[in-house]
Amino acid sequence: xxxxxxxxxxxxxxxxxxxxxxxxxxxxxxxxxxxxxxxxxxxxxxxxxxxxxxxxxxxxxxxxxxxxxxxxxxxxxxxxxxxxxxxxxxxxxxxxxxxxxxxxxxxxxxxxxxxxxxxxxxxxxxxxxxxxxxxxxxxxxxxxxxxxxxxxxxxxxxxxxxxxxxxxxxxxxxxxxxxxxxxxxxxxxxxxxxxxxxxxxxxxxx
Length: 206
Prior knowledge:
Elements: H1 2-20, H2 29-72, H3 76-124, E1 131-133, E2 144-150, E3 155-167, E4 171-180, E5 189-195
């Protein structure tokens, strides 16, 4: 009987003390503050980490986008060359011829001239910024439109011409071509042609 009483007493004491027991960690205010602050600090650091990384990625993407935009933008030097090419060719044709064929020139001949100039610039590499366009097309029946030359040496790199052709049963055509210095300007490299009429066209620059 005494053995059972001891067991019951031990069980009652255990049950009673479980509800009253407080872990030592909660008895120390400093420990409580430390544990309360640390998780917040860890959460803040965890949050700032990805934000900082995202900002860096955004900066890199912005730089890449900026570079891409610059690549997509026409080179001012080449754009200036093409403006002079168009101006000199229109001047060469003169107002009477230009009035009739300018639209066809812009859509068919000018893009081919641009392609040729792109090749010349690419082949020249570092020398390209020294290229210039002459401003004295030949009048009358002369073929010269303009020359591309090296401003440092005043030597021609390419010569752009237009020739009149009277084809039987067809009429008159303007055939555009160019010569390059690599073969001493001997070969004709075709660019394109424009149809005029069966009647004799006016002289150049007329």
